[in-house]
């Protein structure tokens, strides 16, 4: 019966007394506790707007730069985080440094041009 309700709610919203009912799947406490360990990774994935979905009983499937990664233990999660997300943040900060350096160089060139006049 429960699965039928989920299926119906997926196709069209359930309405009761003129109000829409939102149906959520019940996730067992054991699974929620396992997922809590992946919190460090999910925060960064959400921050970077990376699509992912949970695997049952443990792990996640991540879509990153047109590739799919199956993370099924905490070691893989930490490796993915270190390799892709930390690297991406480092690259972002490098780009910011380069951008600031270019801006500084342009300002210096402008100041030299004004002095030469």
The fraction of residues assigned to DSSP E strands is 15-25%
Instruction: Give, in spatial order, the strands making up the sheet with the most strands.
Output: 3-4-5
Q: Portion of residues in helices?
A: 55-70%
Oligomer: single chain
CATH topology of the domain at 27-86: Rec A Protein, domain 2
CA-based shape: extended
Write the H/E string, N to C.
HEEHHEEEH
Region (Disordered): 91-117
Structure write-up:
The protein has 117 residues and is of the alpha+beta class. 60% of the residues lie in helices and 17% in strands. The protein has 4 helices and 5 strands; from the N terminus they run αββααβββα. Strand 3 (51-54) and strand 4 (60-64) form a beta hairpin. The longest helix has 43 residues, at 74-116. It is extended. The N and C termini lie far apart (84 Å). Mean pLDDT is 78; it is low at 90-98. Residues 91-117 are annotated as: Disordered.
């Amino acid at each position: 019966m429960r699965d039928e309700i989920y299926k119906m709610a997926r196709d069209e919203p359930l309405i009761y007394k003129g109000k829409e009912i939102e149906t959520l799947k019940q996730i067992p406490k054991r699974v929620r506790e396992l997922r809590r360990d992946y919190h460090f990774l999910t925060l960064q994935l959400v921050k970077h707007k990376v699509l992912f979905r949970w695997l049952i009983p443990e792990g996640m499937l991540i879509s990153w730069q047109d590739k799919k990664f199956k993370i099924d233990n905490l070691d893989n999660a930490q490796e993915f985080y270190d390799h892709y997300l930390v690297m991406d943040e480092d690259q972002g900060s490098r780009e910011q440094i380069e951008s600031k350096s270019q801006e500084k160089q342009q300002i210096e060139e402008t100041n030299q041009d004004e002095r030469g006049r």
